[in-house]
Amino acid sequence: MRGQLILIEGLDRSGKSTQAGLLTERLAQAHSSQLYKFPDRSTPIGALINKYLTDSSFQLDDHSAHLLFSANRWELYTELLQALNDGKFVVLDRYIYSGIAYSLAKSSLKHASSELGDVDWLYSPDKGLPKPDLTLFLSLSIEELGKRKGWGQERYELEQFQKEVKSCFLRILDPSKDSTVHLVNVEGKSIHEVQQVIWDVVVEAGCDKLTELPVQKLD
Ligand code: NYM
Ligand code: MG
């Protein structure tokens, strides 16, 4: 039996980190659970990513940046897989869909996607990573995001760019094509209300229980 892999995705300041923390605590009431946040800035590649995000004078080609974010996930790959197989529930605060959406929103990387929605180049470095058993995208309006505290301190935290990222997320996260994907509307909801909605989805999907299914890989 193994633990389940649950991913929370969303724009900057959408409440992901708060909700991922609360979900990890809730799961811990019955199981062992662990939270992983991406980018993980504590690793060698994570330190480079942190510099890229916080120092606007530090430039990287957009392709290189994209590959670094994926490499950062591979740095944690063995540990994450081991945790799941040891029966731990793993909650992810961002993962591959952030990787695709933030890159796809850059005009320089539009060529990496076709009009038919093929994001093959952007997706390929993540192939082979564990596939989340459940993905929740926290959705809210750009207007409400702009009002939230701490906005505008890092690279990408610009209203126009976030708007583009949101439409990219909605393009790649389609619940009608993947039943493990759920969109959660958090507009106007309190932290507690959002937590309850998330928990209901987790329970409904059976992701609050250990499973016998082997860990799926992104392919
Ligand atoms: N980000 C995050 C990416 O551009 N690609 C990725 O693969 C991941 C995981 O990093 N603006 C971006 C999104 C965020 C930024 O993340 C920092 P956070 O969750 O704000 O620390
Ligand atoms: Mg952020």
UniProtKB/TrEMBL annotation:
One of its GO terms (biological process) is dTDP biosynthetic process. Its EC number is 2.7.4.9. It is an enzyme of class 2 (transferase). Pathway: Pyrimidine metabolism; dTTP biosynthesis. It holds the Pfam family Thymidylate_kin. GO terms for cellular component: cytosol; nucleus. Belongs to the thymidylate kinase family. Residues 8-198 form the Thymidylate kinase-like domain. PANTHER family: THYMIDYLATE KINASE (PTHR10344:SF1). Keywords: ATP-binding, Kinase, Nucleotide biosynthesis, Nucleotide-binding, Transferase. Gene3D superfamilies: P-loop containing nucleotide triphosphate hydrolases. One of its GO terms (molecular function) is dTMP kinase activity. This is Thymidylate kinase. It comes from Suhomyces tanzawaensis NRRL Y-17324.
